[in-house]
Q: What sequence folds into this?
């Protein structure tokens, strides 16, 4: 097998060379947002220097170049998640917008009093709160499937909760707090049997594993660009064409219409019906370059390296006295939530930062999950393929040092 040349890869990420508080940076907050390769930064720079114009409006050369670049991002994203058609990809500002689009345009018009939406205890607030908002407007309720102590979804319970009142089922592909990989295929199969559409929050899956929405068999798949090497303010919603055709537009404005009359406006075909106004064109140029970067490495190599790092980091972390790790699912992406006995998560994160180590502390936008574990917050070390074993060592050394300061 070929060696994963992580040092060569790191050279592609300008930010990784910097220091923080006089220490070499150890960036372990990748689940929050990833760093960007130079190719992404340069693609956006080149767009503004050479090609910038608005999309879908001008017949001049720059307008055509910008439109081709923006629509090219749609093609790349469609291929990246194996969507059956590029027209089924709505470009959004991120997962939050993607899920809200489904909430207001798909769910709300269908929901009535007594209906339910099924989600899980381990979701990010972006896969809970939009459902609560539309449930409140329609008299529906939001139900949450339980998890076990290992941080795995209770699949039997999830399936048992797919009762006739459930009009939409939701689940994260990968948990942002625990790294747990959920059995989306099995869930989708059960949903199909009952005619319940399934929405999958893919935010934390796409940076780590190849995603095939057709093989998964779900109805909606939401992703965010900034966690997968792309710029902030980019993302997408994939949905089956039958759903998109039936959904009324959520945002109205320019570029989403066929004909505007005060007697009645007709809308553009999907996907443009859902893309009112000027989009984040340069952002999608950057996201295209991010997908090219993933393609150049390949997920086989990425996955193998990340799983090695995860195993090593977990093993090293267990050596630290008083460590409690949250989430020990059989199948995980490289995310480790933990606490040190007798120390506050925020104090630890602050002291780790002084050692150059960037981890996140807090509830990670997952209050119900924190409640399940009975803690207000955790520390989260989330790794990417450009991280190294030496960084894991530096992280553990910093943690041992910080522990001495606090104990
Ligand atoms: N879902 C999950 C699982 C996430 O990790 C995040 C980002 N932390 C989101 C949704 C929201 O993504 P964004 O803020 O980019 O819209």
A:
């Amino acid at each position: 097998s070929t060696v994963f040349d992580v040092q060569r890869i790191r050279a592609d990420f300008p930010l990784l060379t910097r220091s923080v508080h006089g220490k070499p940076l150890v960036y372990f907050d990748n689940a929050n947002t990833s760093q960007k390769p130079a190719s992404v930064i340069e693609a956006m720079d080149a767009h503004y220097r050479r090609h910038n114009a608005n999309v879908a409006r001008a017949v001049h050369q720059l307008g055509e170049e910008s439109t081709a670049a923006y629509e090219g991002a749609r093609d790349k994203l469609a291929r990246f998640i194996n969507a059956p058609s590029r027209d089924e990809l709505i470009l959004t500002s991120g997962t939050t917008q993607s899920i809200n689009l489904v909430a207001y345009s798909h769910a709300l018009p269908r929901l009535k009093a007594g209906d339910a939406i099924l989600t899980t205890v381990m979701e990010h607030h972006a896969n809970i709160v939009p459902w609560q908002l539309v449930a409140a407007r329609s008299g529906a309720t939001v139900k949450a499937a339980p998890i076990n102590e290992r941080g795995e979804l209770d699949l039997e319970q999830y399936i048992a909760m797919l009762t006739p009142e459930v009009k939409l089922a939701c689940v994260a592909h990968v948990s942002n707090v625990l790294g747990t990989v959920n059995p989306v295929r099995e869930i989708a199969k059960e949903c199909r049997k009952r005619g319940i559409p399934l929405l999958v929050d893919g935010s934390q899956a796409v940076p780590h594993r190849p995603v095939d929405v057709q093989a998964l068999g779900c109805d909606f798949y939401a992703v965010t660009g900034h966690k997968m090497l792309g710029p902030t303010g980019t993302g997408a919603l994939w949905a089956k064409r039958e759903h998109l055709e039936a959904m009324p537009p959520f945002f109205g404005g320019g570029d989403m219409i066929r004909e505007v009359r005060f007697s009645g406006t007709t809308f553009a075909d999907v996907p443009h019906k859902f893309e009112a106004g000027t989009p984040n064109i340069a952002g999608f140029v950057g996201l295209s370059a991010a997908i090219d970067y993933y393609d150049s490495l390949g997920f086989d190599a990425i996955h193998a390296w990340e799983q090695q790092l995860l195993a090593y980091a977990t093993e090293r972390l267990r050596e630290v006295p008083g460590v409690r790790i949250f989430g020990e699912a059989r199948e995980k992406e490289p995310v480790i939530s933990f606490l040190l006995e007798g120390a506050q998560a925020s104090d630890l994160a602050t002291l780790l930062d002084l050692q150059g180590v960037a981890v996140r502390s807090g509830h990670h936008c997952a209050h119900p999950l924190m409640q399940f574990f009975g803690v207000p917050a955790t520390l989260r070390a989330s790794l990417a393929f450009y991280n190294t074993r030496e960084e894991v060592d530096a992280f553990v050394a910093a943690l041992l040092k910080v522990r001495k300061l606090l104990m």
Remarks:
- The pocket of 4'-deoxy-4'-aminopyridoxal-5'-phosphate is lined by residues 94-96, 124, 126-127, 172, 176, 201, 203-204, 224, 226, 365 (CB under 6 Å).
